Amino acid sequence: MRHLLLRVAFAIACGLLLVFLLFPLYYALLTSLKSGSELFRVTYWPAEIDFGNYIRIWSEQSFARNIANSILVSTCVVGISLAVALTAAFALGRVRFAGRSTLLYTILGISMFPQIAVLSGLFEVIRVFGLYNNLAGLIFSYMIFTLPFTVWVLTTFMRDLPVEIEEAAILDGLGPFVIITRIFLPLMAPAMAATGLLAFIAAWNEFLFALTFTLSNEQRTVPVAIALITGASEYELPWGNVMAASVIVTLPLIALVLVLQRRLVAGLTAGAVKG
User: How sure is the predictor about 180, in pLDDT bands with cuts at 50, 70 and 90?
Assistant: First the structure.
Protein backbone atom coordinates (compact mmCIF):
# COMPACT_ATOMS: atom_id res chain seq x y z
CA MET A 1 0.00 0.00 0.00
CA ARG A 2 2.80 2.37 0.90
CA HIS A 3 4.62 1.56 -2.32
CA LEU A 4 1.43 2.32 -4.28
CA LEU A 5 0.98 5.67 -2.52
CA LEU A 6 4.56 6.63 -3.28
CA ARG A 7 4.07 5.82 -6.96
CA VAL A 8 0.85 7.83 -7.08
CA ALA A 9 2.52 10.78 -5.34
CA PHE A 10 5.45 10.58 -7.76
CA ALA A 11 3.09 10.50 -10.76
CA ILE A 12 1.19 13.52 -9.43
CA ALA A 13 4.44 15.43 -8.85
CA CYS A 14 5.64 14.62 -12.38
CA GLY A 15 2.29 15.70 -13.80
CA LEU A 16 2.40 19.03 -11.95
CA LEU A 17 5.98 19.62 -13.07
CA LEU A 18 5.02 18.84 -16.66
CA VAL A 19 2.11 21.28 -16.52
CA PHE A 20 4.35 23.94 -14.98
CA LEU A 21 6.96 23.56 -17.73
CA LEU A 22 4.63 23.25 -20.72
CA PHE A 23 1.95 25.78 -19.77
CA PRO A 24 3.96 28.88 -20.94
CA LEU A 25 4.47 27.31 -24.37
CA TYR A 26 0.80 26.27 -24.54
CA TYR A 27 -0.40 29.76 -23.59
CA ALA A 28 1.94 31.35 -26.15
CA LEU A 29 0.48 29.04 -28.81
CA LEU A 30 -3.04 29.88 -27.64
CA THR A 31 -2.35 33.62 -27.72
CA SER A 32 -0.78 33.39 -31.19
CA LEU A 33 -4.11 32.08 -32.52
CA LYS A 34 -6.06 35.09 -31.22
CA SER A 35 -6.57 38.50 -32.75
CA GLY A 36 -8.10 41.85 -31.84
CA SER A 37 -9.67 42.18 -28.41
CA GLU A 38 -9.44 38.41 -27.89
CA LEU A 39 -5.75 38.89 -27.08
CA PHE A 40 -6.70 40.56 -23.79
CA ARG A 41 -9.17 37.92 -22.66
CA VAL A 42 -7.79 35.22 -20.39
CA THR A 43 -8.92 31.90 -21.79
CA TYR A 44 -7.40 28.45 -21.62
CA TRP A 45 -9.06 26.96 -24.68
CA PRO A 46 -9.34 28.54 -28.15
CA ALA A 47 -12.84 29.78 -28.97
CA GLU A 48 -11.80 30.07 -32.60
CA ILE A 49 -8.52 29.56 -34.44
CA ASP A 50 -7.08 32.49 -36.38
CA PHE A 51 -3.77 32.08 -38.26
CA GLY A 52 -3.63 35.78 -39.15
CA ASN A 53 -0.70 36.44 -36.81
CA TYR A 54 1.40 33.79 -38.53
CA ILE A 55 0.49 35.15 -41.97
CA ARG A 56 1.45 38.69 -40.94
CA ILE A 57 4.78 37.52 -39.49
CA TRP A 58 5.82 36.03 -42.82
CA SER A 59 4.34 38.74 -45.04
CA GLU A 60 4.90 41.99 -43.13
CA GLN A 61 8.19 41.16 -41.42
CA SER A 62 11.42 39.86 -42.98
CA PHE A 63 11.18 37.00 -40.54
CA ALA A 64 12.43 34.32 -42.91
CA ARG A 65 15.70 36.26 -43.29
CA ASN A 66 16.04 36.54 -39.51
CA ILE A 67 15.50 32.79 -39.07
CA ALA A 68 18.07 32.07 -41.79
CA ASN A 69 20.54 34.35 -39.98
CA SER A 70 19.99 32.53 -36.69
CA ILE A 71 20.40 29.13 -38.35
CA LEU A 72 23.61 30.21 -40.08
CA VAL A 73 25.12 31.83 -36.98
CA SER A 74 24.16 29.02 -34.59
CA THR A 75 25.35 26.28 -36.95
CA CYS A 76 28.70 27.97 -37.54
CA VAL A 77 29.15 28.60 -33.82
CA VAL A 78 28.48 24.94 -33.01
CA GLY A 79 30.77 23.66 -35.77
CA ILE A 80 33.70 25.92 -34.86
CA SER A 81 33.22 25.41 -31.11
CA LEU A 82 33.18 21.61 -31.38
CA ALA A 83 36.18 21.51 -33.75
CA VAL A 84 38.29 23.74 -31.50
CA ALA A 85 37.02 22.15 -28.28
CA LEU A 86 37.77 18.60 -29.49
CA THR A 87 41.42 19.39 -30.21
CA ALA A 88 41.71 21.43 -26.99
CA ALA A 89 40.13 18.58 -25.01
CA PHE A 90 42.71 16.16 -26.43
CA ALA A 91 45.54 18.43 -25.31
CA LEU A 92 44.04 19.17 -21.88
CA GLY A 93 42.76 15.67 -21.21
CA ARG A 94 45.47 13.40 -22.62
CA VAL A 95 48.71 15.41 -22.84
CA ARG A 96 50.66 16.11 -19.67
CA PHE A 97 52.25 19.56 -19.50
CA ALA A 98 52.97 22.17 -16.86
CA GLY A 99 50.08 24.44 -16.00
CA ARG A 100 47.42 22.19 -17.52
CA SER A 101 45.04 22.45 -14.55
CA THR A 102 45.60 26.20 -14.28
CA LEU A 103 44.77 26.64 -17.96
CA LEU A 104 41.64 24.51 -17.63
CA TYR A 105 40.36 26.46 -14.64
CA THR A 106 41.15 29.71 -16.43
CA ILE A 107 38.99 28.60 -19.34
CA LEU A 108 36.21 27.75 -16.91
CA GLY A 109 36.61 31.10 -15.16
CA ILE A 110 36.18 32.99 -18.44
CA SER A 111 32.71 31.50 -18.83
CA MET A 112 31.70 33.03 -15.49
CA PHE A 113 32.07 36.61 -16.71
CA PRO A 114 28.67 38.21 -17.46
CA GLN A 115 28.19 39.35 -21.04
CA ILE A 116 27.71 42.96 -20.02
CA ALA A 117 31.19 42.97 -18.44
CA VAL A 118 32.93 42.32 -21.76
CA LEU A 119 30.47 44.14 -24.00
CA SER A 120 32.35 47.44 -24.37
CA GLY A 121 35.75 45.85 -25.00
CA LEU A 122 34.29 43.31 -27.40
CA PHE A 123 32.46 46.08 -29.27
CA GLU A 124 35.79 47.84 -29.84
CA VAL A 125 37.32 44.60 -31.17
CA ILE A 126 34.35 44.07 -33.48
CA ARG A 127 34.64 47.66 -34.74
CA VAL A 128 38.41 47.49 -35.35
CA PHE A 129 38.11 44.29 -37.41
CA GLY A 130 35.21 45.68 -39.43
CA LEU A 131 32.74 43.09 -38.25
CA TYR A 132 30.03 45.45 -37.02
CA ASN A 133 26.60 44.68 -38.52
CA ASN A 134 28.03 41.45 -39.89
CA LEU A 135 27.06 37.87 -39.06
CA ALA A 136 30.75 37.01 -38.79
CA GLY A 137 30.94 39.40 -35.84
CA LEU A 138 28.15 37.51 -34.08
CA ILE A 139 29.86 34.17 -34.72
CA PHE A 140 33.12 35.55 -33.33
CA SER A 141 31.49 37.08 -30.26
CA TYR A 142 29.44 33.96 -29.44
CA MET A 143 32.66 31.98 -29.04
CA ILE A 144 33.15 33.76 -25.72
CA PHE A 145 30.40 31.79 -24.01
CA THR A 146 30.30 28.59 -26.12
CA LEU A 147 34.01 27.69 -26.27
CA PRO A 148 34.74 27.60 -22.50
CA PHE A 149 31.71 25.38 -21.91
CA THR A 150 32.43 22.97 -24.77
CA VAL A 151 36.15 22.74 -23.91
CA TRP A 152 35.44 22.01 -20.25
CA VAL A 153 32.78 19.36 -20.93
CA LEU A 154 34.68 17.58 -23.71
CA THR A 155 37.85 17.57 -21.61
CA THR A 156 35.96 15.80 -18.83
CA PHE A 157 34.74 13.13 -21.26
CA MET A 158 38.16 12.82 -22.87
CA ARG A 159 39.73 12.05 -19.50
CA ASP A 160 37.26 9.20 -18.93
CA LEU A 161 38.19 7.36 -22.15
CA PRO A 162 40.47 4.34 -21.60
CA VAL A 163 44.15 5.10 -22.04
CA GLU A 164 44.68 1.65 -23.61
CA ILE A 165 42.83 2.75 -26.75
CA GLU A 166 45.22 5.63 -27.31
CA GLU A 167 48.27 3.48 -26.53
CA ALA A 168 47.16 0.85 -29.06
CA ALA A 169 46.70 3.54 -31.71
CA ILE A 170 50.16 4.97 -31.04
CA LEU A 171 51.67 1.49 -31.34
CA ASP A 172 49.98 1.15 -34.72
CA GLY A 173 51.78 4.32 -35.84
CA LEU A 174 48.81 6.68 -35.85
CA GLY A 175 49.41 10.40 -35.36
CA PRO A 176 47.48 12.74 -33.05
CA PHE A 177 45.16 14.02 -35.81
CA VAL A 178 44.17 10.51 -36.87
CA ILE A 179 43.67 9.46 -33.26
CA ILE A 180 41.38 12.42 -32.65
CA THR A 181 39.31 12.10 -35.83
CA ARG A 182 39.08 8.31 -36.24
CA ILE A 183 39.21 7.02 -32.68
CA PHE A 184 38.13 9.64 -30.18
CA LEU A 185 35.55 11.38 -32.39
CA PRO A 186 33.23 8.32 -32.74
CA LEU A 187 33.60 7.52 -29.04
CA MET A 188 32.70 11.07 -28.04
CA ALA A 189 29.71 11.39 -30.37
CA PRO A 190 27.15 11.43 -27.49
CA ALA A 191 29.14 14.04 -25.58
CA MET A 192 29.57 16.18 -28.69
CA ALA A 193 25.86 15.90 -29.50
CA ALA A 194 24.95 17.04 -25.98
CA THR A 195 27.41 19.95 -25.87
CA GLY A 196 26.67 20.91 -29.48
CA LEU A 197 22.94 21.05 -28.78
CA LEU A 198 23.44 23.20 -25.68
CA ALA A 199 25.79 25.50 -27.61
CA PHE A 200 23.23 25.76 -30.43
CA ILE A 201 20.47 26.70 -27.98
CA ALA A 202 22.70 29.32 -26.33
CA ALA A 203 23.61 30.87 -29.70
CA TRP A 204 20.02 30.67 -30.95
CA ASN A 205 18.64 32.49 -27.89
CA GLU A 206 21.42 35.06 -27.44
CA PHE A 207 20.09 38.61 -27.38
CA LEU A 208 22.56 41.16 -25.95
CA PHE A 209 25.41 40.70 -28.45
CA ALA A 210 22.97 40.36 -31.35
CA LEU A 211 21.27 43.62 -30.37
CA THR A 212 24.57 45.48 -29.90
CA PHE A 213 26.53 44.25 -32.90
CA THR A 214 23.82 44.42 -35.59
CA LEU A 215 22.11 47.48 -37.01
CA SER A 216 20.07 46.51 -40.06
CA ASN A 217 17.16 44.07 -40.05
CA GLU A 218 18.91 42.03 -42.76
CA GLN A 219 21.63 41.08 -40.25
CA ARG A 220 19.49 40.55 -37.15
CA THR A 221 18.80 37.18 -35.58
CA VAL A 222 15.38 36.07 -34.35
CA PRO A 223 15.60 37.20 -30.67
CA VAL A 224 16.28 40.79 -31.72
CA ALA A 225 13.73 40.60 -34.53
CA ILE A 226 11.03 39.48 -32.08
CA ALA A 227 11.91 42.25 -29.64
CA LEU A 228 11.54 44.85 -32.40
CA ILE A 229 8.26 43.60 -33.85
CA THR A 230 5.74 46.43 -34.20
CA GLY A 231 2.09 46.57 -35.14
CA ALA A 232 0.58 47.99 -38.31
CA SER A 233 0.34 51.36 -36.52
CA GLU A 234 1.91 52.92 -33.46
CA TYR A 235 -1.35 52.34 -31.55
CA GLU A 236 -1.63 48.64 -32.39
CA LEU A 237 -0.09 46.25 -29.89
CA PRO A 238 1.78 43.42 -31.65
CA TRP A 239 1.33 40.75 -28.96
CA GLY A 240 -0.26 38.28 -31.38
CA ASN A 241 2.64 38.65 -33.80
CA VAL A 242 5.16 38.33 -30.98
CA MET A 243 3.56 35.13 -29.71
CA ALA A 244 3.39 33.68 -33.23
CA ALA A 245 7.07 34.46 -33.80
CA SER A 246 7.97 32.98 -30.40
CA VAL A 247 6.19 29.73 -31.24
CA ILE A 248 7.90 29.55 -34.64
CA VAL A 249 11.43 29.98 -33.24
CA THR A 250 10.77 27.50 -30.41
CA LEU A 251 9.77 24.66 -32.74
CA PRO A 252 13.30 24.06 -34.19
CA LEU A 253 14.71 23.68 -30.67
CA ILE A 254 11.99 21.21 -29.70
CA ALA A 255 12.62 19.26 -32.92
CA LEU A 256 16.38 19.13 -32.25
CA VAL A 257 15.87 17.90 -28.68
CA LEU A 258 13.45 15.20 -29.84
CA VAL A 259 15.77 14.03 -32.63
CA LEU A 260 18.89 14.03 -30.44
CA GLN A 261 17.28 12.99 -27.16
CA ARG A 262 19.02 9.61 -26.99
CA ARG A 263 22.44 11.06 -27.68
CA LEU A 264 21.68 13.95 -25.36
CA VAL A 265 20.86 11.65 -22.44
CA ALA A 266 23.85 9.42 -23.24
CA GLY A 267 26.15 12.43 -23.43
CA LEU A 268 24.94 13.95 -20.17
CA THR A 269 25.23 10.66 -18.26
CA ALA A 270 28.34 9.12 -19.85
CA GLY A 271 30.70 10.80 -17.43
CA ALA A 272 28.56 10.22 -14.35
CA VAL A 273 29.83 6.69 -13.70
CA LYS A 274 33.44 5.87 -14.21
CA GLY A 275 34.05 2.22 -15.02
Answer: confident
CB 202 within 8 A of CB 146: yes
Q: Of 149, 145, 154, 146, which is closest to residue 89 (Cα–Cα)?
A: 154
Count of CB atoms situated within 10 Å of the CB of 79: 14
Domain architecture of the chain: domains with CATH: 1-50 (no CATH), 61-269 (1.10.3720.10)
**Entry pTM:** 0.83
CA dihedral of residues 119, 123, 124, 130 (deg, nearest 10): 160
Q: Which of 91, 109, 184 is nearest to 149 (CA)?
A: 109
Query: CA-CA distance, 39 to 30, in Å (whole number)?
Result: 9
Hey, what amino acid is at 261? Q
pLDDT score, position 269: 59
60-86 mean pLDDT: 90
